[in-house]
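#structure-requests
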Amino acid sequence: MKAVQYQNGGGPDVLSLVDVARPEPADGEVLVEMRAASVNPVDAKLRERGAGQRPKTTGSDLAGVVTAVGDEVAGYEVGDRVFATGLHTDRFSGGSFAEFATVPTDLLAPLPDGVRFEAGAAVALVGVTAWRALVHHAGLEPGSTALIHGGNGGVGHIAVGLADVLGATPVATARAEYHEMVRELGAETVLDYTRDDLTEAVHEATAGADVILDHLPETYAELDVEVAAVGGDVVIIAGESVALPNAAVARSKELNVQLMSMSNLATHATLPAIGPILERLGRLLETNRLEVRIDRTETLENAAVAHRAVMEESIAGKIVVVP
């Protein structure tokens, strides 16, 4: 079968489309024929570092059809439509950028018939990340206000839609060219993140944000503290370094600042399982209460293009990869 792998760390050019043996499912696993995968910044960062078991097949998200079932598997049969995420972690040398992938059932969920494979692959990691941040960590409630940084991005655009579904009021930042899209996803207000008066504009739009989802704490940590409501939750989902420049203000507001990594759900059995979260996301997609946007589709042969784009370009939603 074909798979996109890297032997060493480096830029997108270290990715190669190679012929490898088709894997066999172990106990508790199913073999999935990949119909769609998607690229995430974490895939590119791991490739850059040369992280994980190598050779490593890149990719976390996939959607496809079960073609074989290992022992000790209940609830899945050959022919089932499924989607999954978490294949980027050190738990595996395999990944989703391959014609077939073995997937443990804790990372898997049924993909409803009414949801396209491309949508299932696109929503997986970003949907679980948004759910973990807003539902598990922030406890987002109806009637509250959520500030979503990067509302056009992978996690951001799903977080906007999820906050809207939960009955909160989403306020998002995004480039001007994406404002209409982000409003269509459910944001009440969309603000250009380049404006000089962004802090004041967020204050005006939220009157104090109950929940803040931040993917660039190096840029927004100070703003987050300034615009958060008393007792607010700031959930940081990315960033190489985090500092709290105005800790006195954060303390006076009794803010809850939570750093998180969605990857932990794939590697720590004591944390909530990925599968049930995916199942809920699938139901929301099936009933058109949540929408995932696909910026464009690439093939496995163009995996390096997808990796480069997710780090260097401004994306509206997700980039999907097909066999």
